Amino acid sequence: WVLTTVLTAEQFASFGWRIPFLFSVVLVFVGYYIRRQVEESPVFAELAERKAESSAPLGTLFKKNTKEVILSALIFIGNNAVGYMIIAFFAAYASRPLEEGGSVGLDRAPVLLATTLASFGWLVFTMWGGALSDKLGRVRTFQIGYVLLIVWLIPTFLMIDMANIWMYGIGIFVLTVGMGLSYGPMSAMYAEMFPVEVRYSGVSIGYALGAILGGAFAPTIAETLLAETGSSISIAIYMIVVCIISLIGVSLVKETKGNDLGLTKHH
Predict the structure, then answer these.
(1) CA dist 66 to 43, 63, 253, 263, 267, Å?
(2) Residue 79 · residue 136 · CB < 8 Å
(3) Distance CA 135, CA 107 (A)
(4) What is the pTM of this model?
(5) Which domains does the chain have, with CATH numbers?
(6) How large a percentage of the chain has pLDDT more than 90?
(7) pLDDT tens-digit profile of 97-113?
(8) Residues above pLDDT 70, as percent of the chain
(9) How far apart are CA 264 and CA 4, in angstroms?
(10) What's the CA gap between 150 and 247, in Å, rounded?
(11) N or C: which end of the chain has fewer CB within 10 A?
């Protein structure tokens, strides 16, 4: 938002887009510091002591935990699809000039500011979702999050189409409540779904599959639907269908809260 405000479109296209990537170097040092300060978890220490990690984790994973891999992927596709819409589609859709075929035509700078504020809201609601799942359970928190997304997606697009920056901001900000509740419990739930011997492989593959199936093509599909139907509601319906799939997926998971993360559960 800052860069697009202080730079012209030509300057941003020429060199401005590179500046955030340069600042990301700081994250290398932050990550290194955190890694040096955090001790290995008791579960990892137990695993190393018993040398119980599978020598062929993928074979073991798909032999014993195929269902969990599929469910973990399905659980993520709804959140990831809507997430890509928030960070990649909504701003472009709302700020595309009318003379270039846009249907909303809001100024780009306030749209990006509203999107940035919504992203901060998403962060806060994600932390709240994680804490809430410790009380309500992972499955219930996910279900609440996805129901909120399903209910609010059509109003979000209707509000964006009003071509009012306040309606745009409120629409996507409220949407991040459901995003946070359907993302905050994810790391804990995924860890609790897989036995420790294949946990890293299971979580990684399930998450990656969900990201590919849910988010990788979401903006492209949205653009195609908009071009074919001329209505943003078709995009909302597509998002709702994906979220319903995730809601069904998470509802098929037995509550994981309180599962033993160590080896004792599986031996």
Answers:
(1) 23, 7, 13, 20, 19
(2) no
(3) 42
(4) 0.82
(5) 1-38 (no CATH), 54-266 (1.20.1250.20)
(6) 54
(7) 988 888 899 998 899 99
(8) 82
(9) 54
(10) 9
(11) C
Q: Please give the pLDDT value at position 267.
A: 44
Is residue 45 within 8 Å of residue 179, measured between CB atoms? no
8 A C-beta contact, residue 112 and residue 9:
no
Amino acid, single-letter form, for residue 264: T
Residue carrying the six token digits 């992203």: 119
Total number of residues shown for the chain: 267
Q: How far apart are CA 222 and CA 55, in angstroms?
A: 42
pLDDT score for 229? 94
